[in-house]
Structures are given as structure tokens and as C-alpha cells.
Amino acid sequence: MSQKFDVIVIGAGPGGYVAAIRAAQLGLKTACVEKWVDDKGTAVLGGTCLNVGCIPSKALLESTHKFHEAAHDFAVHGIGAENVSMDVKQMVSRKNTIVKNLTGGITGLFKANGVTLLQGMGKLLANKKVEVTAADGEAAVYEAENVILASGSVPVEIPPAPLTEGLILDNAGALDIDETPKRLGVIGAGVIGLEMGSVWARLGSEVTVLEAMDDFLAAADKDVAKEAAKLFKKQKLDIKLGARCTGTEIIDGKEVKVKFTDSEGDKEIVVDKLIVAVGRRPQTQGLLAGDSGVKLDERGFIFVDENCRTGVPGVFAIGDSVRGPMLAHKASEEGIMVADIIAGHKAAMNYDVIPNIIYTYPELAWVGKTEQELKADGVKVKTGKFPFAATGRAMAANSTEGFVKVIADEETDRILGVHIVGGIASELIGQAAIAMEFCSSAEDLQMTVFAHPTVSEAIHEAALAVDNHAIHMANRKKR
């Protein structure tokens, strides 16, 4: 007789492991299936985010930002730091240590909360049975009252640039480059492409980014995209828009010739490393037996409703394998929501208030809708912008680039979007998300007392600027 659980979660990424812990905390007998193992055969928890995504990339970004500051910005503070150097191998080693500590921490959390780890490849069978196939091919079948599919996503590969070890890399390979390439090519000017390009540009690489779309950061507010493009150009990131990769050629096993076409015709560049960062797709291949009852769309995403229920009672799906943004925090909150629903609690998630962040420097962050989206929807809006250059704390930190933009409904005054370009935009956007979650008006933020001196005062001033009441800058003339 097979072992039975109240909940079986397939996938131990930021959606899956959070769902498993929450379910166990709610008194449900819970198991979590994970196929990823290290070279010793030990399960690797945390999924893409902790292992080859969010966390390791931020470690590299933080290290290279500190290096760039020391090399270029310390002098303004009166600090002498001549001949600063970067030990790239040590930087990568530190990144690996951080990843190891965090993934090991999840193992400890599973034990502390009583989550059973099932090591192997999980597949949903009919009648909520889950087959787990170990690395040696041995399979076992488990029964569950509820199943949560949290299989995540994988990088999209493109035929013109097939991955080649050490030369043409996806996001995982990009994180293990252990010496600064003289010339770096990046295909895709999205989150991963811009972040990885920034890492190596700071260390002296000549970075060329090829973006097939004509618009830069099309998902961002146009004011944010315009400001970011200006700042990246200043940082010597050569971003070519409307540039579609048509082929690659390995030269002497050491270089990559990248062929592309743009509005001017066929062109090519030669680089030492090429990173392919054109997006991700759901990892649902092999996840579902033919008679499982769960349906996929034409792109491989699992069909779910607003509460992440599939068409099979008791089977849920969360994270990158379902609709919505492919973000770790979105997956985690879906995992909590689903665990609560299974335990019989009322739960819902507000998909209109999910922050998006690009961890370049300055950082780019936004929550809610862009001004362009709102106007396209026929919503009349009023906006307020305030530059960090006018805040004392940003001046003291020598981090004055960028601004805060607040968008409010012209009739109701409700905040519909907040968009930030700035040094710690990732930390500030949480204030905006909280305000929007509680349906705040611009006036609510205007009446809130912000500490002085802080960079968050820019949010206060931007809210005031919505009604032409900003104190520390000249307001627009009333028509």
C-alpha cells in the first residue's frame, strides 16, 4: 500500500518549498518532491531562484557595485582607494557560499516543520497519485488528498545561439564566469540581460546587448525606460534595439562571432562570452501523465483559476508554470494562499499589487500600472514626480540618479501605480505596495509623516506633486 499525504508539492523552488512549509504549519501531513541533486547526490532545494537566479545574481551585483564604488566614487567622500582590484574567483566563491547557506537552510526548515522530502522526478498521475522517480530509475507512487504543482521554469533557448560550454551561456552558466571577459555579448535586454551585463561592465568588460524589440523595457513606464536607457548608456552598456540574432559561430574555440540584423541590415560582432537571456518558459514537460486531467495551454502553462485551482479538484498549480509574472515572490504568495485554502481558510491574492524589480544600479522598481496602460484603458490620471537629486539623504549617499513617480486616479485620487528609478528602489517599492494594498489615495501619502532625512521622502514629495503641492521642488504651473 502506498504512503498517503494530505499534501504533496512537486517542486522545491520559492513557490513549492513555501507552500510545503505553510501546509505543514497548518497541521497537514506534507511531502515535497525535488529532482535537483548536487554532485554528491544530495537534494538541492530552493529552485532556480536560490541556486541560479535571484540570490546568486544579487551577490554578484552587490560585489561588483562595491568594487565600482571603491574604484570610482570613494574619492568624492575623501577616501583614497587607489589600485583597487577584484578577485573574480573569490567573488564567485562568495556567491556559492551564500547559495549553499540558503539552500541548506531550507533543509533545516523542512525538518523543523515536519515536511517529508521525496527525492526524484515528480509526475502527477490520475486520481491525485504522484510518481517519484529517483536518479537510479527506481519509481515509487504516493497518494495525496491534495497536490500542488510548483515545477517552475527554464531558460528559453534559441536556435541561432545554441549553448556551448564556456562560450555561449544561459543564466546559470553566466553566474559561473570566473574571469572578466574583455568583450561580453548579451542577447536580450530584459531583467537577466541587464543585470548580468551590469555585473561585467562594472569590472571592465565591453558589453553589447542585442534586443530584438524596438522598444526598450516595453513593460516599464515610459518615464522609467527613458531614464534607464540614459543611465545605462552613461555606464557604457551598448544596447542595440531592433537587433535580432541570426546566427553564431565559434572561432578557434575561444571567441564567438554573433550575427544579427537590425534596421540597417546584417551585422556581426565578436565576443569572448555570449549570454542568452531571452526569457523563460514553464517547466511542465514530463510533469503530467496523459490521464492526470490537468490541462496545459499552447505555451505549456497550466490552466488555473484566480485561486490557482486546476480543472482537477484537489490539484493546484503555482509559480512560473501558471499565468502571471515569473517572480519568486509571486510564487511564494501563491504557495501560501493555496496551502491556506487546502486547510480550509479563506484566502486570496491581489495580483494588481505585485512589485517588479530590476537590480541594476540605479535599481528599477514599479508596482501597479504604467501611465501608458492606464491611458489606454481610458482612465484619467494625474501624476507626480520627484527627483532623488533634491533629497538630502540621497546627496549624502552620493546616489542622486533617478526619481519616484506616483500615478493616481484623477477622479478618486486612488494610487494606481508607483514607479522608481534609484539607488535603493527595491527597498522603497515595498512602501508603495503597502499603500496600494490598502487602497491608499495620493492624499493618504501626502498626510503621512516620513522620517527626515531619508530617501523615502521622495515618495512623500512625489505624492504631493500629484496635486502640485511638492515642497522641495518647483511645481508645474497650473493651467
Automatic annotation (TrEMBL):
Its cofactor is FAD. The active site is at H452 (proton acceptor). It comes from Neptunomonas marina. It catalyses: N(6)-[(R)-dihydrolipoyl]-L-lysyl-[protein] + NAD(+) = N(6)-[(R)-lipoyl]-L-lysyl-[protein] + NADH + H(+). Keywords: Cytoplasm, Disulfide bond, FAD, Flavoprotein, NAD, Nucleotide-binding, Oxidoreductase, Redox-active center. The keyword Mitochondrion does not apply. Its main location: cytoplasm. This is Dihydrolipoyl dehydrogenase. FAD binds at K58, G122, D320, M326, L327, A328, H329. The gene is lpdA.
